[in-house]
Amino acid sequence: MLAIGIDIGGMSMKLGLVNEKGEVKDTFTVVTNSGDPYEVTIKNLVHGIKELVSRNKLYPDDINGIGIGVPGAVNANTGVVDSAVNLGWYEVPLRDLIQEATGIQVRLTNDANAAALGEAKFGCKGKYQNVVMLTLGTGVGGGVIIDGKLFEGNQGKGTELGHSTLIMDGEPCNCGRKGCVEAYASATALMRQTKEEMKKNKDSLMWKLCEGDINKVNGKVPFDACKAGDPSGIKVIDNYVKYLGETILNYNNIFRPQAFVLSGGVAKQGDYLVNKLKEYCDKFYWGYKNTPVPDLVIASLGYESGIIGAASLYL
Amino acid sequence: MLAIGIDIGGMSMKLGLVNEKGEVKDTFTVVTNSGDPYEVTIKNLVHGIKELVSRNKLYPDDINGIGIGVPGAVNANTGVVDSAVNLGWYEVPLRDLIQEATGIQVRLTNDANAAALGEAKFGCKGKYQNVVMLTLGTGVGGGVIIDGKLFEGNQGKGTELGHSTLIMDGEPCNCGRKGCVEAYASATALMRQTKEEMKKNKDSLMWKLCEGDINKVNGKVPFDACKAGDPSGIKVIDNYVKYLGETILNYNNIFRPQAFVLSGGVAKQGDYLVNKLKEYCDKFYWGYKNTPVPDLVIASLGYESGIIGAASLYL
Predict the structure, then answer these.
(1) B193 burial class (0-12, 13-18, 19+ CB within 10 angstroms)?
(2) Minimal Cα–Cα distance from A54 to chain B, Å?
């Protein structure tokens, strides 16, 4: 079985031919220019799909379907990209345009959803049927797998797991509310928390780690300081672990998944982060003694996760 | 099509014969004595089921199944009641015991889940396939219907919608964490908030409404004071609406249901509460302009909702 997965980004669109084992057999990259009208970008995309099919000596009928992960708001029912700000796309009927041009069926989803499906199916090697994925990057993305299937909410607009309050009336969030998970547990939030602590403590090792320039702070700085025993670094990371741990506890009570999968920049901390989270969460898991405790794991599909995840819609 | 629904409570167990329209055709009540061992209670329950079948001139084969709503933690996979504190039940294999004694298949779920399913199927007359129900009583119960089916989480232990943080590190919650939805949006929390405000303001109308006795405060007092224009009452209700509104906004971003259904003591405020919630939430719904806004409605099944909801597992 073969499917095509497409990972749409602001700079490029990555296409991949993926088999039923989640192996990427061939890839094709379409460069996107932010100024291009969507018609041009889609024409290039269709060319890429046809190239991928023909150079592998395949016919459209050999492809089970084309899954597309979109960085924005998608209506899963109508196949319309409602808005993808980074692409300048608004109300683009992407599914129908690609289907008509290629003769292959197409399904769209939000990129975080696609990643969650790919990790559940292939990253975790089918070990889990119920997964919550949290992507800790510029924002906090969420994806939920229920009984092995992607759960997207009505019209595909649910699982915005970064936009539930952790602290009502807290830090302002991009969504217009205050105190959302994204405002505390994203890499952006971690950097803000690091800078705030650095301003309070001029002796912190974190100043040295960014060569005295606070603008050089990234998500790694507080972790490195914490590992080196710097009190300010420890404080920042302990707080961050609490924010993320409370988020995991919340979604555990809501979805009770078998596993949480963490991805994005902050997840590069791997076992160091996972162990701290386990230590925090183990104190607060709730339910009678037989209630299952979820596994906490780091996403494993790497740079091709977007392609594999999108293709998973048809695998 | 006929099913039996059983609503288990601390004082009594209500059994009902329900048809495919959600109509309760006959009922039978089994009184429970809290001191009884579970074997006795279950024997009485089996007697009730057999009575309901025989006096309606039916055979076990005429019953599609027996759905049971349990006030506690249920393992939906194994059919075991892990814990139902009010009944003193721990690890009771209820499903198998009833199945063996009656020859009718049995399914268990948490009582809040059962209520949600009943309201989605029959209260809302099938208008919605995706529903989040919040029960605002002593605690906050949650039930979620996805694509017309009950979503329970792994082993049936999810959708504990009262136990997600609204304000991290806030009011202590019964679950051992701090700042959960239940600690702000339950009827119990509303009464606490009312008492706190009364202690601050001895001139509040709320003192009169409870005849000068703060122990007479119930969930209706602050609503009555608010309606009468009492500044303290208005303050309590405005805050409560914010707590509940933020809860709805959170679960909207997570599940994006077509409707929220409110039940429990606080929901008796009906349209007065709904209109205030709509006013609050309308300012903060998030998503591109095409993103659906959920309906907010009050549960409509009334005192038989537990029976109808449990029977819905087989209707």
Answers:
(1) buried
(2) 37
